[in-house]
Amino acid sequence: MIIKSADFICSNTQVSKLPPPLKPEYAFIGRSNVGKSSLINMLVQKKGLAKTSQTPGKTQLINHFLVNDNWYIVDLPGYGYARASKSKKADWNKFIQTYLDKRESLQCVMVLVDSRLEPQKIDLEFCSWLGEKGLPFVLVFTKADKQSNIKTDQNIAKFRKAMLAFFEEAPQHFVTSSELHTGRDEVLGFVSSINQNFEVPDFDEEHYK
């Protein structure tokens, strides 16, 4: 896939204010500080499209980016925020879950996992929740340039093994590095293959007025 354009469309906390679900979209989510903004910018080759921050948990809104005028990258707040009150955390979790569970045009959730870490409980629990809801997802392992390939492979194998406690088989996964552009063609190729079969879903237009 050749990226010709990538534009910020909107930020909000209300599912009713999202763009009408007329184009396929892919939600990017992961633990705070997993390298989500850097990965999104690398995929579309546009520095600064998604704001990278030194403060983990800064993305507190649903951000829509329109790519090539025909599909959306959706940047979701990270889970496991560094600093947030319990009530605020509950509100965020609720609106993220509502988006993931109800969004008609969501094609796949891209769950970002730091390839340098042993399997984290919070990541596994989130994947388990997606499985319970029957939501399609893939694993995107980030920051692979920060360690040896052997270490990356070992951590991925451990994560996939841990997932077998919840799933009959581990989902598809990609290994990425925002610095080296590793995995870019593979992730975009995956998106492209799904986009080809996209059909506009039935949806309640009243929700988007």
Automatic annotation (TrEMBL):
Keyword annotations: Cell cycle, Cell division, GTP-binding, Magnesium, Metal-binding, Nucleotide-binding, Septation
Name of the coding gene: engB
Cofactor entry: Mg(2+)
Database matches in Gene3D superfamilies: P-loop containing nucleotide triphosphate hydrolases (3.40.50.300)
Superkingdom field: Bacteria
Protein name: Probable GTP-binding protein EngB
Role played: Necessary for normal cell division and for the maintenance of normal septation.
Family per record: Belongs to the TRAFAC class TrmE-Era-EngA-EngB-Septin-like GTPase superfamily. EngB GTPase family.
Organism of derivation: Mucilaginibacter phyllosphaerae
GO molecular function: GTP binding; metal ion binding
InterPro entries, alphabetized: G_ENGB_dom (IPR030393), GTP-bd (IPR006073), GTP-bd_ribosome_bio_YsxC (IPR019987), P-loop_NTPase (IPR027417)
Domain annotation EngB-type G: ranges: 22-197
Gene Ontology process terms (BP): division septum assembly
CDD domains: YihA_EngB (cd01876)
